[in-house]
């Protein structure tokens, strides 16, 4: 299998972690979606990462779809519950974590614009999304029903990747205040080899 992405994207990191957790062998193709010469559109017509080429040569894109595709493989651990309703609950939390990443990325991209072209209103709107999303994740992590349970699942990975991105880009430096369950989750996840192997490089382009 071939994973196309870059080292700083939290969505790419999510898929890398999943594949490492499952012990899957894959080639990582480091491609930025932001350059004119990017090869990413060859794999995803939307020009976004990650994209995955499976062992049959079929291409998959969007991290949630790739995660679902990887769940169809026989390799353990399974990261979604077998029961359909429970699986949807976990996937909703994955979507929430990805949405936090979406908001953080908008802020990061906005900060790259000349100061006179930046929109403080838009950045504040995105920060509110992040705070509400983190509050919702904290409640779920505290309940330990669909998140932060005994067995690692897709929501755990997605939430930890989202917070890892907040840390990496310094978007919400006080995210841990009054969120002890999330802190516990993140500390637990960051100790895993899959997360240690996917820490983004210190000097990296925006993604």
From TrEMBL:
PROSITE patterns: GST_CTER, GST_NTER
EC number assigned by the record: 2.5.1.18
CDD domains assigned to the protein according to its UniProt record, in alphabetical order: GST_C_6
GO molecular function (one): glutathione transferase activity
Record bears the keyword Metal-binding: no
Domain called GST C-terminal: residue spans: 83-207
Domain GST N-terminal, first and last residues per copy: 1-78
InterPro entries membership: Glutathione-S-Trfase_C-like, Glutathione-S-Trfase_C_sf, Glutathione_S-Trfase_N, GST_C, Thioredoxin-like_sf
Gene3D superfamilies hit by this protein: 1.20.1050.10, Glutaredoxin
The keyword Metal-binding is assigned to this record: no
Keywords annotated in UniProt: Transferase
NCBIfam families: PRK10357.1
Name this polypeptide is given: Glutathione S-transferase
């Amino acid at each position: 299998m071939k994973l196309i992405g870059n080292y700083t994207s939290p969505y790419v990191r999510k898929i890398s972690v999943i594949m490492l957790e499952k012990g899957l062998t894959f080639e990582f193709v480091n491609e930025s979606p932001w350059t004119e010469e990017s090869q990413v559109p060859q794999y995803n017509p939307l020009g976004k990462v990650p994209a995955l080429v499976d062992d049959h040569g079929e291409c998959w894109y969007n991290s949630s779809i790739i995660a679902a595709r990887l769940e169809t493989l026989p390799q353990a651990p399974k990261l979604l519950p077998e029961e359909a309703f429970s699986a949807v609950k976990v996937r909703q939390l994955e979507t929430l974590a990805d949405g936090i990443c979406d908001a953080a990325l908008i802020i990061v991209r906005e900060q790259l614009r000349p100061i006179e072209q930046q929109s403080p209103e838009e950045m504040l709107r995105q920060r509110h999304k992040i705070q509400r999303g983190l509050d919702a994740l904290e409640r779920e992590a505290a309940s330990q029903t669909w998140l932060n349970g005994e067995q690692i699942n897709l929501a755990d990975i997605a939430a930890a990747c989202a917070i890892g991105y907040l840390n990496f880009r310094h978007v919400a430096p006080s995210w841990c205040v009054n969120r002890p369950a999330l802190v516990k989750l993140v500390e637990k996840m960051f100790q895993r080899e899959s997360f240690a192997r996917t820490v983004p490089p210190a000097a990296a382009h925006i993604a």
